[in-house]
Design brief:
alpha+beta
Amino acid sequence: MATGLTREEAPPLPAEPPVPARRRRRLTTGIAVALVLVVAGLVGWVALRGYLARQELYAALPAAHGIQSAIVSGDLAAARSSADELEKHASAAAALTDDPIWRAAEIVPWAGPNLAAVRTAAATTQQVASRVIAPLVDVAGSADPRKLSIVGGKVDLAPLVAAQPVVAKAQTAFHAASKSLAAVDTSATIHPVGSAVDRLRELFAEVTPAVDALGNSAKLLPAMLGADGPRHYLLVAQNPAELRATGGLIGSVALIAADHGAVSLVAQQAGTSIGPWTESVAPIPDGPTGLFGQLIGTYIQDVNLTPDFPLAASTASRMWTLTNGGSVDGVITMDPVVLAALLRATGPVELAGGESITADNAVSLLLSQVYQRYPDPAQQDAFFASAAAAVFQRVARGGIDGSALISALAAAGSSHRLLIWSAHPDEQAVLSSTSLAGGLPTSTASTAGVGVYFNDSTGAKMDYYLDTSVAAGAAICRADGTPTTRVAVTLANRAPADAATTLPDYVTGGGRFGIPPGSIQTRVAVYGPSGGLLAATTSGGATKSAISGTDSGRPVSVFLVTLAPGEQKTVDVDFLALKQTGTGVSVTTTPTLPGDGSTPDVGTESAVGSIAVGCTSP
């Protein structure tokens, strides 16, 4: 039956019913909640693992301290137990902060730098625990120089040679970990994370000298003690009663032989029996020649007018071979303060005449009493040679606490009283990074390295009564941001008021060089930072007469200070530190005596204080 409607007029089919708005909102909310839950779960996961990692690192601290104390006490079993505990906690902390979720979270703004810093801190701790501390503890009994003993004039080098590769790998791993930690950018971290990283960096800095000392000892000692064949060294005795820049006039020289650990005294000579020469025995750079004159290349007593010990040592070595022939593998210096420290390890040593030299009387005996007792310099030289030979033979005989002996030598090195130069370039490259090298002061971008060195100009032995002190500081006063570094040098003559009449002419000089008896004249050389400029040399607010020059790119001021008994003077030297952006200052000085007749501690450097540098308005 027809409806009368055309196709065009037919009603449309009904559409799918629309999703209600309420359902859409529920779906969106569900997705959002799911995302929130996922994010919250991820955050919770990271937070939980971060908390657990923190707990593991805190738990590792007692083990780290335990290792140090156990090694110092010689309890290697306890040290190994603590090392295992440290590695367990450090490995757990590293694993907790190195999963894919943690790594992915490091790309999140704000949180990322903090997570990366924590992961790096944990990883470096684990690396040090497993690749540095654990291997070193395993070889501590053989690699520790303090464990070396001299028996019958010989050191057994086999344990140290066997430990060499382990120690070398540990030293490399330590510096790799330290480099990774140094690369962490704490500027974008929250305070707790940044301070924790900074503290870890401080711990690394504290441990670095010990790690390097052990590593360098393992590299150097076997070869230097003749493991690869005979070696010959000059042992030069410096006399701080007549100062030179590296410590004192070279009064005597001994030739020491080392062959597969066996050490012997081959020959001894007074410094006066070597040279002089009319021309320099070796090439001397223009810098030190202009500052200190030609004597550093012609007189062995003056080779160390320059503070550059490698230069002085190589020149002295050349003088010895020109006089005696043969070859020299290195030069070692020491003074009566070092001798006194060795005597604390050996105990008193009887001299040829029946007298005993001890830790308490060595400095006074060798630097003062000997001149009262023997007016003839030849007799003085004979006494010095006898004392040196007696102490050397006592050390070589053995039966000494190795720890005490090495501790004394290490302390002497830290105060620059013991210096070593090697004629072998690979060994000298290792030494150059240590306090034993005696090189010129070094600077960094933030720290100006300066040096203050003393050379006697009295021509006598009055520096036994010279008291020296140094203070330094820096400030940025200029509009261009260049720091000004100031060095204040104070010298005092502590000789008795009647020194001119009560002390021997050999000690006072007797006025031979125009210096009144009892007075002390010192030529002071102040080295500024590398690439810097000498700005002023003043005393009491007035300009001080001085020689200016440069040495290996360092500005230098050289001036004379003359002091009557009881007199004291201060000289200020200012430098512009053109290569520095910070105001840090490090100071190296000639090791001197207190001036009052007492024996200084072998490990104590000459007094260095700090001063404020005031900026004056233009």
